Phosphoribosylaminoimidazole-succinocarboxamide synthase (Fervidobacterium islandicum), 235 residues
Amino acid sequence: MSGTFLYEGKTKIVELSEDGQSVILTFKDDITAGDGAKHDVLTSKGQFCSETTARLMHYLNTKGVYTMFINYIPPNKIRARKLKMIPLEVIVRFKKAGSFVRRYGGTEGEDLPEALVEFTYKSDAMHDPLMCVEHLEVLGILDRENAVKIINQAKQAANFLKEFFSLHGFELWDIKFEYGFDEAGNICLGDEISPDTMRLRKAGEIFDKDIYRRDLGNPMEKYEVVLNLCRSILL
């Protein structure tokens, strides 16, 4: 299945579907870190991340969260709503980790008193700088009303996923979302939900892209574990 090519990113190809009413996302086997400075191709990664995304977005849809997901096309494609993507990464943090610790100190894995939402500008060249709501307004990226909507929607989606993973004995430390506007101007959760976009831990073990970032081996074994638990969500 293929359509009209629209865009190719580091880990996905986006095509306009044959009917022109949706897009097809093809998940590649590429994995990157350090704003693309580190790059490898890992067998099955596209399949694991696409199916995990499909099942978790379907789960969120059943909870009333509006996502891009329409249907899963095995092994590594998703049919999704057409969105005008907002050039932001929206990070929901439950614990201190990664760049948060580098910026503000603290201990990796330390609880935050409440869920924290951060915006970063999506630019490898600028290393995804942190932005406040005033930045979004002044630079014309997003108005305050929609920024607040995204904060609330991101917290809601992250809490649903945190609850889901906790039922399986996993801790969701943080998660990165991306949002866009659908053709009616509604904010919609897009892009991907997978071990590439979250920190997920269980009994001290890492089940996310930190395995790759830290050169701890091939992360695909752990990605497959996450996919298998997500298969409890029926499509």
